[in-house]
Design goal:
368 residues, Isopropylmalate Dehydrogenase, 49% helix, globular, Phosphate acyltransferase
Length: 368
């Protein structure tokens, strides 16, 4: 039976530490999709304990329909939520929203991570203000997993930072490596810097400096160097590092190509009886490909570089997709994602400081 937390008692006063806080009211299909997704996740993570934030009057009947979700959830009631179209600045003022309570739980140490399918901009703003950026990290980044010919790849940044400097890119490499270790289970992920060419002289100054720093860092043996757009789907590296502008464009372009390919396949196999017979012959292979490329498998973008695990589910996902986002969060919590980042930053601290000091000593170039 799920338990009820009094809205008048701060969650920091409760004794139980939850695996995750989950925003029960975030997303297009909330709260139904959220609760159904938690029922799926309960099978995959039997020991998980969830602090479910949201309107108890709406959540409790849904939990009664999903006993597995009910068995792992404790409700923290609030009747406030962040609408999908609310501006981030306005969301910051809703002090008792279901999203805010989830962030508060992580900040206070009562939950080790938070998952929400709600407003992306509001979620990033709240994460920065409430959970806060990890010491040693200049800016949080958005990371996610995408399919490749060889397996999966971690990409970051995907839109949190439109403009980046060399230090941001190096930090993204550190965070991406920790992500690939925690979620993909790779002992030594290969890292690539996305560029307009693989040659060492290609790209702008920030890319060249980031490359030089990584080649001298503890990540040197894992650093592949510069990669191009086609290397992303080729699986040339396990981690793709870029600025948020380029990363978001690459992600959306990939999604568009996948939709186009799916549409073209439908057209090909619907043209006449021969094509339909051909479809029947290749259908098992197409079904396997569909399962492999199913976007629900890759649901769960992560805001990395924060003092806690913060996972953003796609707002329009279904129960299976939401469960996948919970899987990502649990992998990160279970495998000490943030500990891996702290360890790397400790080893790289002197190198980063030396490079920063060197940059500051260089005389400014003035226009003649």
């Amino acid at each position: 039976m799920s338990k009820k937390e009094s809205p008048d008692i701060s969650i920091s006063e409760q004794s139980e530490v939850f695996s995750l806080a989950v925003d029960g009211m975030g997303g297009d299909g909330a709260p139904d999709v959220v609760v159904a997704g938690l029922a799926i996740a309960a099978d995959r993570h039997p020991g998980m304990r969830v602090l479910l934030t949201g309107d108890e009057a709406k959540l409790r009947p849904l939990l009664a329909k999903h006993p597995k979700a009910e068995s792992i959830c404790t409700i923290w009631h609030t009747d406030e939520a962040v609408p999908m179209d609310m501006k981030p600045t306005a969301a910051l003022r809703v002090r008792k929203s279901s999203m805010r309570l989830g962030m508060d739980a992580v900040a206070s140490g009562r939950a080790r991570g938070v998952v929400s399918a709600g407003n992306s901009g509001a979620m990033l703003a709240l994460a920065k203000i409430v959970v806060k950026t990890m010491p040693g990290i200049s800016r949080p980044a958005m990371a996610a997993i995408s399919p490749t010919i060889k397996g999966d790849v971690v990409m970051l940044d995907l839109g949190a930072n439109v403009a980046c400097d060399w230090r941001n890119l190096v930090e993204f490499a550190v965070m991406g490596e920790a992500f690939a270790k925690a979620v993909l289970g790779l002992p030594a992920p290969r890292i690539g810097l996305l560029n307009i060419g693989s040659e060492e002289l290609k790209g702008d100054e920030k890319l060249r400096i980031a490359s030089e720093v990584l080649r001298e860092s503890p990540l040197a043996s894992q650093f592949h160097g510069f990669i191009e757009g086609h290397d992303i789907t080729a699986g040339t590296t396990d981690v793709v590092v870029t600025d948020g502008f380029t990363g978001n464009v690459a992600l959306k372009t990939g999604e568009g190509v996948l939709k186009m390919a799916t549409s073209l396949l439908r057209q090909v196999f619907s043209r006449g009886i021969i094509a339909k017979i051909g479809y029947l012959l290749v259908r098992p292979g197409l079904e396997r490909m569909k399962e492999w490329l199913d976007p629900r498998r890759y649901n769960g973008a992560v805001f990395v570089g924060l003092n806690g695990v913060v996972v953003k589910s796609h707002g329009g996902t279904d129960a299976e997709g939401f469960a996948a986002a919970v899987d990502v969060a649990m992998d990160m919590v279970t495998h000490g994602f943030n500990d891996g980042i702290r360890e790397r930053l400790t080893h790289m601290g002197a190198l980063l400081s030396h490079q920063q000091a060197s940059m500051e000593r260089e005389p400014a170039v003035t226009a003649s």
